[in-house]
Amino acid sequence: MESIKSQFARKLMDIKAIKLQPQEPFTWASGWKSPIYTDNRKTLGFPRLRSFVKLALCHAIQENFPEAEAVAGVATGAIAQGALVAEELGLPYCYVRPKPKDHGMGNQVEGEIEKGTKVVVVEDLISTGGSSLKAVEALRQYGVEVIGMVASFTYGFPVAEEAFKAAGVQLITLSNYDAVVEEAAKTGYIKEEEKAVLAEWRKDPAGWLSPLIRGLEV
After folding, report:
1. What's the pTM?
2. Which end of the chain, N or C, is less packed with Cβ atoms under 10 Å?
3. If you ran DSSP here, which 8-state letter would residue 196 be given?
């Protein structure tokens, strides 16, 4: 049976929520050059895929965090996904801003969840893990117990894995970078030899240069 990681990787590429360009890399907001671009929010525009993501995240929560009493989404990418999951599971919901509002009540956690509640965080994309774990810290300061996180996709950077481990947060994802690369090679999206280039990027994303930039042929 095909794994959920492979299924979802292919579905994301089918709707161009994930694009791979080893020869003509994208530039991230951080300034990193990257052979991959990911926008999981595009899944919201496809009803069947939106439902697939919702149910897969719900299953991940029920299987790994059955004691969950509430759901929290990370702004802005996972606000909608988190709400869909909470609705399906019949659980209370809130979302977490990157920082407190500078007006009104100054909230960072939006919604109403009782202190001490066991919360699962829903995220759309994990890169270094920094923004996701800031949301976890905000929830802990708010007074709830974060028991884990589920996310649509992760690049699988070692720095993220170490950060989640240090924060004591179990992370479960629907798909990952390795699954995308394998599916892309299998379907002819990328050349077999480009897999090595993509693997090289993951080892050192901050210092990576594409073959085109280096004047090399792949």
Report:
1. 0.92
2. N
3. H
